[in-house]
Specification:
281 residues, 36% helix
């Protein structure tokens, strides 16, 4: 649906990719269902859209949402946490993304009262542990990483802290995982820090630039990462879809202009198209 007086997209903003989109059905309020959400993303210039659901898998849903829609699985308690079978099934059905725990993550639960997690209030799942008491990756996750590597899927950090993500991604690389993405790294509850940034850069991990995190906390814009992290390791995941925040028709264009002001039109287009899409396919 086109909204009157919506800001114009930059001229280069076509055939873009979005790795992080929320839709109904969901236990949280959304702007629209899968088809409506993918259609709204298309109107905003996106030809590749990844549906994400904290409740579990979107792989089956994506197949019904139209061309260019992809799904994946979030390894919260609802699918059993460290469940390699969930990854295997998602991959064999065409899924391309595996997210580590979000609402089930220890870091999420510890930061649940923070303003940037207000969108999740009223929705809780059981804890899923990722690291042991010594700070090492728990052994049940090795089979998950092996399944991700076997199918060459994109592994996303979910709501793990920056420090947890370093441990996870280092293990993932050792087990052959090629595609790594840190979700909304600038959200305060995730504890972004320069030491973790340096280690993630060495691992070749991509950072997710998103719109909803910037709407929730403009003082910690992910656009600052364009000056602090290699631009060639940035990808886009808008994290839009929550009914209490702007839809794509309102939110996307101003954010794209802000991105262009930081990195220039050519690099902005590269981030929003080729760099992001190559993580997926």
């Amino acid at each position: 649906m086109t909204i009157s007086n919506a800001p114009a997209l930059p001229d280069w903003a076509t055939n873009m990719a979005d790795l992080h989109v929320h839709a109904a059905p969901s236990l949280l309020p959304r702007h629209g269902d899968d088809r409506q959400t993918v259609a709204a993303e298309r109107e905003a210039g996106f030809s590749t859209v990844v549906l994400k659901a904290h409740e579990g898998s979107t792989v089956e849903r994506a197949t019904c949402a139209g061309d260019g829609a992809y799904g994946g699985v979030v390894l919260n308690s609802a699918v059993g946490g460290a469940n390699p079978d969930a990854v295997e099934i998602a991959a064999r059905l065409g899924g391309r993304v595996v997210w580590m725990p979000t609402v089930s993550a220890r870091t999420h639960k510890a930061g649940a009262a923070s303003p940037e997690l207000a969108v999740h209030r009223g929705f809780e799942l059981r804890l899923v542990e990722v690291l042991d008491d010594a700070g090492a990756l728990r052994p049940e996750w090795f089979d998950v990483l092996d399944a991700v590597a076997r199918h060459d899927l994109l592994l996303c950090s979910g709501h793990l802290s920056a420090a947890e993500t370093v441990v996870l991604f280092a293990n993932a690389r050792r087990r052959g995982v090629r595609r790594l993405l840190v979700n909304h790294p600038m959200m305060a509850f995730l504890g972004w820090n320069q030491a973790s940034a340096a280690e993630l850069r060495e691992l070749g991990a991509y950072l997710e630039l998103g719109i909803l995190p910037d709407l929730l906390d403009p003082g910690r814009s992910c656009l600052d990462l364009t000056q602090a992290y290699p631009a060639s390791l940035l990808a886009f995941g808008g994290d839009l879809g929550h009914a209490r925040h702007d839809p794509p028709a309102v939110a996307v264009a101003p954010w794209l202009h802000a991105l262009e002001a930081r990195v220039g039109a050519a690099r902005a287009a590269e981030i929003m198209t080729t760099q992001t899409r190559e993580l997926l396919t």
